[in-house]
Design brief:
Elements (H helix, E strand, L loop, with lengths): L1 H13 L2 H10 L14 H13 L3 E6 L7 H21 L3 E5 L10 H17 L4 E3 L7 H12 L5 E6 L5 H7 L5 E4 L14 H17 L4 E4 L3 H13 L7 E6 L4 H9 L4 E7 L4 H10 L2 H11 L2
Helix pairs in contact: 1-11, 4-5, 7-8, 8-9, 11-12
């Protein structure tokens, strides 16, 4: 019961614009520096280089979402373009992850589409891949609509499907052949659209992972759950699914030993690295996901 209250508090805080604005002034405080790789492109690239040397590949995410002006969206687009260019110059092994509300989705979907095309053109120039992060349920359908339109021109773009949504299995079936990151889900959603029970979410998560793997589609399994990871390994072996067809993904700063262990076993292990000063919403959702993360954050705060 206490864990559920704690989860709701952090999820509510993640959407609080006043707190988010204040957090930008605080800098990477309250343990956030443990899970956010600095506030500049340079700091993020340096972290990618360090992880690449350890056998881990990455994806960079310039934090930010729900912008309210065209100027902010254009600035975010330009920042993502510069990030791709910096990755290309440094020749690091990293993709890019983007949130379309940061690129103006709530302002005008056509405007957001233009910004996405700029980013994808740059990624294509450097032979790189862009993952469209999935946001809350209200943005799910429009995200998939834009993805399908973009896929008519670009093959270097995919998205994320969240297992706690009732629609997840059907979406995965309809997105056969497209690279997907499969996650459990981190937003607070209504019981009318999403499973609320962890066991049901876990069951649906394995269901969509198996569906996408069996379809021959490239699958990114984003989970820190060792039970899920063990099940995926067994399933892939049983069904003769080559390791080249899937990868494991984890967040920067979490379960580092397991990340290195998977890489040493010969699995593709990608680390999701957020960076930038708009860190508050991301950090609050991480605290909401698991009660253990709160202790983790406090440890980081008091160790400074």
């Amino acid at each position: 019961m206490l864990a559920e209250v704690s989860k709701n508090v952090f999820l509510h805080a993640s959407q609080n614009k006043v707190l988010n604005k204040a957090a930008k002034k605080w800098g990477l405080r309250f343990g956030a520096a443990q899970v956010v790789a600095g506030d500049t492109i340079e700091s993020a690239i340096k972290k990618v280089q360090e992880l690449n040397e350890k056998g881990l590949i990455c994806t960079l995410d310039h934090l930010g979402e729900f912008v309210s002006s065209r100027e902010e969206a254009i600035e975010a687009t330009q920042y993502n373009v510069r990030t791709l260019e910096a990755m290309g110059r440094a020749r690091v092994n990293s993709n890019l992850s983007v949130k379309m509300t940061q690129l103006g989705l709530d302002i005008d979907p056509s405007f957001c589409m233009e910004n996405m095309r700029r980013i994808l053109e740059t990624a294509k120039k450097y032979n790189n891949f862009v993952r469209i992060d999935m946001e809350d349920h209200a943005h799910c359908q429009i995200t998939l609509d834009i993805l399908r339109e973009l896929r008519q021109t670009y093959d270097n773009v995919g998205t994320v499907i969240q297992a706690y949504l009732f629609r997840a299995e059907q979406d995965v079936k309809e997105l056969k052949g497209i690279s997907l990151r499969l996650v459990k889900g981190a937003y607070q959603e209504s019981p009318t659209v999403a499973y609320q029970d962890k066991a049901e979410v876990d069951k649906n998560y394995m269901r969509i992972i198996e569906e996408h793997l069996l379809s021959g589609s490239y699958t990114a399994i984003a989970s820190h759950d060792h039970n899920i990871i063990a099940k995926v390994k067994d399933f892939a072996q049983k069904h003769h699914i080559p390791r080249e067809q899937f990868e494991f993904q984890m967040l920067y700063g979490f379960r580092t030993d397991m990340q290195l262990s998977l890489a040493k076993e010969g699995y593709t292990m990608r680390v999701y690295i957020p960076f930038g000063n708009d860190w508050f919403g991301y950090f609050m959702r991480r605290l909401a996901e698991r009660p253990q993360n709160v202790a983790f954050a406090l440890k980081g705060f008091f160790s400074k």
